[in-house]
Amino acid sequence: MPLYRLFFRLSVFLVFLLMVATGVSVQAQRHRPRLPRTIMARPDMPFVYFPYPLGKKRWMGSLGLAFTVPPRAVTEEFQVTVPRSDLTVLRGLSKHIYLSARLTAQGLQNHLSIGPRYARPVSERISLSIGDDFGLWGGILRSSQFNSQGFGLLNYPTVSLGYQVDPQLLLTLKAEVILNLYNFSKVGQVATKTNAMQLEGAGVTMAMEQPFYGRKHVLLGFRALYTNFNWQFWALFPTFDRRLFYPELFIGFYL
Q1: What are 31-87's pLDDT values in tens digits?
Q2: For the whole model, what pTM was predicted?
Q3: What are the φ and ψ backbone dihedral angles of 236, each rounded to 5 degrees?
Q4: Which residues 6+ apart lie within 8 Å of 228 measured at CB?
Q5: Helix/strand/coil for 26
Q6: d(CA 136, CA 114)
Q7: CA R_g for the chain
Q8: Is-contact 37 168, C-beta < 8 A?
Q9: Exposed, middle or buried: residue 249 (CB in 10 Å: 0-12, 13-18, 19+)?
Q10: How many CB atoms lie within 10 A of CB 136?
């Protein structure tokens, strides 16, 4: 898929998401007491994607599920989507710097990423951050005919833009580059590896964080990857060399 088509679809989706979220928020505000206007006056507001300074020694986290729809070019006729557990944890290091760690796993597909973020508000409602995550993926597949295993190291330079629609609703747009640093796979006694850094593709994430019920908050998001290699499908050992579109949906509740 050409990049301009991908970004056009993502833009349309973001506009739709913003319209829906704004409408829901306006209706909800009619039944809520008046709250401080911005996140700067809401130290209790939970978030994991919104690019705002966390504060020294402060923790934040969410737990949920993630779903990735595989393209037919990878799975052919075998179209099965198995959800993965999705845990995200933030830890504040200083006024503007914090660590972000994300673990997504379901046995066959497992990925742990961790990296620093530098976040700074640029206005009452808009905030920016830059970061650099390192990800370690791995999995084991056992069958009656042969055993397979694979693991690798990835790097994700990121930049995020956040906008606070109202006192209860946070929207985030995050862009990332996918760099493949190391791959190892083994089928039976045959092993292959690559250790040269390669630019695999890019991704865009759109996340919405808002109240769900009572004092509970919910995270809803959509991640679009346009990449050659996707660690989630390592067990299929794809042999083609072209970038494909991988849509991912995720939902989380704050810890």
Answers
A1: 444 444 566 656 678 899 999 998 889 999 999 999 988 777 766 655 566 789 999
A2: 0.79
A3: -90, -10
A4: 198, 200, 201, 241, 242, 243, 244
A5: helix
A6: 9
A7: 19
A8: no
A9: middle
A10: 16
